[in-house]
């Protein structure tokens, strides 16, 4: 008896008992993705589908394995070549959002391949693809089976609940969807084992559809659930963190972790926590974590029936507040006279450091002037007594006490910076670009203390001591800067030069009407040597030039020997190929009367 006939008879028998349900129309296709604690892959995802209206389900919840409260997205790629770009989908799901991490969307799929991924930083390796079939080719339906699991009594009944797992395979186009129907209800998309806990008899029908649209025959699992003894559900436990945070989300000085556990059956018996891999400790009041650094806080709860919840985890970082101001100091440099006064000018250098949050700003002021941001040593050249004040502030907002240095500047000395010029030379094309390379020469002069150093830098490179002209050969636009410092320490303003280096044009074709025969042929004699281009647009046949006028055959042979010897010397031609070409020239008779029929010239003598 065939399986189909058995199914028909079984359906008729169940109808007599009032348990059969009428056939229902196939539902809109449903594709389900699930998320867990992983940041590298989705917990489950489809590999194939059919074209048409489709319900997309994305669930990222505790039920699908996300116990840390981490968010994921399900995003369809709309830009990468090779994939369908007609569906715009971007679902953000979190176990603690208003939908408890389960979201749906309705889209219309077309035949082809779709790519999906997670857009959250650190989760971008969560990526995959699925194929939408056009429904042709595969005509074999999937195979689908069911397995029922759970605690059973002596009669085989399931105590309190039964879990039904469905498995579908398809060797053709692949499984597109699996569905189940419980106790005559509506058909539902199967994405995870189905837990049934209602006391009584149950029938669970199931079926699968492949990517090509073939649907399996309905299968059926039947079982009975009876009341059990006691509480088998573990408590629900969560944790929250409180405390002042900085702009990066780190907790300042202390993070306080509160754990909450509930149980609707036998009540919570105990709550425990574990900090940074230490021992499990009984929880009674919020836990204050003060150690600086990253922390991991695990927690769990047990109810009066002995059921223990899965471990939860929260991670956070504690940093210490910075309450110490920066350290700041100043030094004065320059040429001093016998009285200690600075001749011509004094240079004040301010230095600040902070071992906590770091220096945010350094400021200075000269005499009664306004405070200004300090970025480079301050040069004071006005004769007279001066006071330079300075102060610093760190990232945490701590300000140092104001400091100051006092000194006197007297007239005299060199206060004039050197003069600097920059010249660019080289071969230029019609657009003033430099061909192949440009040479930069920097010159400097100082009429007082003399030039101490000349420096240059090309584009974004480092400042370099200039000693000889600089050759720039990299193709493209360039900017060269130059500066000079004299013996008295005066630094010139930067001098700038801009130019472009372009590649040299290819040499002109010396033989625009080349002899392009495949081999070197002289007077009808084929040397069997490949007729190559020698590098200037001319071929070997061109340089042999058999059609030119020669005083005699010997003159022609001497010409061939000379030009081929030069090509050997230049590495264009091998000695063996040269000998074959010269032999063909000797046998050709070019330049004189043709050789007597049947006679062979004395090749050895002529070579």
Features:
flat; copper; Immunoglobulin-like; 6 domains; Copper-binding protein; 9% helix; 5-stranded mixed beta sheet; disordered N terminus; 607 residues; mainly beta; 42 strands
CATH architecture of the largest domain: Sandwich
Low-confidence stretches: 1-26, 594-607
Characterize the overall form.
flat
CATH names the topology of the largest domain as: Immunoglobulin-like
User: CATH superfamily of the largest domain, please?
Assistant: Cupredoxins -  blue copper proteins
Q: What order do the strands of the largest sheet run in, or round the barrel if closed?
A: 2-8-7-4-5
Summarize the amount of helix as a percent range: under 10%
Radius of gyration: 45 Å
Distance between the termini: 98 Å
Structural category? mainly beta
* Total number of beta strands: 42
Domain count: the total is 6
The largest β sheet comes out as: 5 strands, mixed
Protein name: Copper-binding protein
InterPro entries: BlueCu_1_BS, CBM6, Cupredoxin, Ig-like_fold, Ig-like_OmpL47-like, Ig_E-set
GO molecular function: carbohydrate binding; metal ion binding
Keywords: Copper, Metal-binding, Signal
